[in-house]
Amino acid sequence: MIPIARPILGEDEFAAVKEVLASGMLAQGPKVKAFEDAFAADLGRKHGIAVANGTAALHIALLAHGITQGQEVLIPPLTFFATASTVLFCGAKPVFVDVDRASYNMDPTKVVGAMTRKTAAILPVHLYGQTAEMDPILEAAAERGIPVIEDAAQAAGAEYHGKKAGKLGATACFSFYPTKNMTTGEGGMIVTDDDDVAAKSRLLRSHGEASKYQHVALGYNYRMTEIAAAIGLVQLRKLDGWVKQRRANARALTKGLDGIEGLLPPSEGNWMVHAYYQYVVRREDVFPRSRDEIVQDLTEDGIGCRPSYPMPLYKQKALRDLKLRGRCPVAEDVIPGLFELPVHPGVGPAEIERIVAAVEDVARRD
Ligand SMILES: Cc1ncc(COP(=O)(O)O)c(C=O)c1O
């Protein structure tokens, strides 16, 4: 089986973890600080605040920007659940802005129309490893005087107009879950240039504790461990090479799939460096097999293929009854055709050949 994702952990990571275990210092300490500094420096950001996971990063970043009850936050409907749930954790409402048909990211032309006087932030997602079309989103936010918080959970290593994902909005949030472009097991990071947001984030990540047993805010235990940070420091050094490998794999897949009628490979926007967290293909009606049949056929052939997100978030059971605004016809139209193929750095030329041959074989069935 060629897995859809696989973390790459080698001797360097083992040695880094061993060093932490031998030190006896396991909870947030010097490794976390070193990881924060290295991650922020890599993006050219002033502050990095490491947390337990990407969901915690989003929750804290929203709170640090003052998002609260009675407010609305613009998000896309085609993303992981945490983009919406964290807005709700703050007591605010996610408002859904439809996606662009080519990139599947938030459609910038629909942002202004989704704003109301309650709109307090925009939370675009850099889906599948490619940044949202940020310039018009940033412009719309600036005109309203509200922040843009990037959900960069999937986009470590991506670029937009020569700037890295995570350096585009006021604040950005990353996830280091094991399937991501780099991992710490579980982990997340907030990056920002805003001193106030950074200070609030640091407070909220650890019980609102300003000094020992002095709690000045209702915070959480969202700290990262030293073990996770030690792994992250090693993985960060390898990130650029892995992204290059992902991009080479994506190019080879697109070349191989070229000419198969009814399958649309992912598109890379102008001035963007897609980090290919996922390689997502869209099945169109002329293709002889349904999306679910494609997934089943390829899985039986030993290719780790799976559908992308099953529905726009507002149709998820947990959100259905909340009367959230924003119906998204483009998302509803594209979602049933989307499926993912393995593109991670563990995939080599022989595997690419196998994947392409298997897809060609599916295309010949009816
Ligand atoms: C777009 C997006 N946002 C947020 C998250 C949440 O990250 P985590 O799983 O680390 O909590 C994820 C990852 O799974 C994600 O893909």
Would you kindly provide a written description of the structure presented here, covering whatever features stand out?
Helices cover 38% and strands 15% of the residues. The protein is of the alpha+beta class and 366 residues long. It has two domains: 11-235, Type I PLP-dependent aspartate aminotransferase-like (Major domain) (Aspartate Aminotransferase, domain 2, 3-Layer(aba) Sandwich), CATH 3.40.640; 239-363, Alpha-Beta Complex (Aspartate Aminotransferase, domain 1). The chain has a four-stranded mixed β-sheet with strand order 1-9-8-5, with helices on both faces. It has a four-stranded antiparallel β-sheet with strand order 12-14-16-15, covered by helices on one side. A hairpin with a 2-residue loop joins strand 10 and strand 11 (214-215). The relative contact order is 0.17. Pyridoxal-5'-phosphate (PLP) binds at residues 53-55, 58, 79-80, 82-83, 125, 151, 153-154, 175, 177, 188.
Ligands present: pyridoxal-5'-phosphate
C-alpha termini separation: 24 Å
Task: Specify the CATH class of the largest domain.
Answer: Alpha Beta
| Main pleated-sheet profile | 4 strands, mixed
CATH architecture of the largest domain: 3-Layer(aba) Sandwich
> How many structurally independent domains?
2
Regions with little confidence, pLDDT below 50 for 5+ residues: none
Describe the global form: globular
- From N to C, what is the helix and strand string? HHEHEHEHEHEEEEEHEEHEEEHEHHEH
Which range does the strand content fall in? 5-15%
Strand neighbour order, sheet with most strands: 1-9-8-5
Number of strands: 16
**Rg, Å, rounded:** 21 Å
Fold-level CATH name of the largest domain:
Aspartate Aminotransferase, domain 2
Structural class: alpha+beta
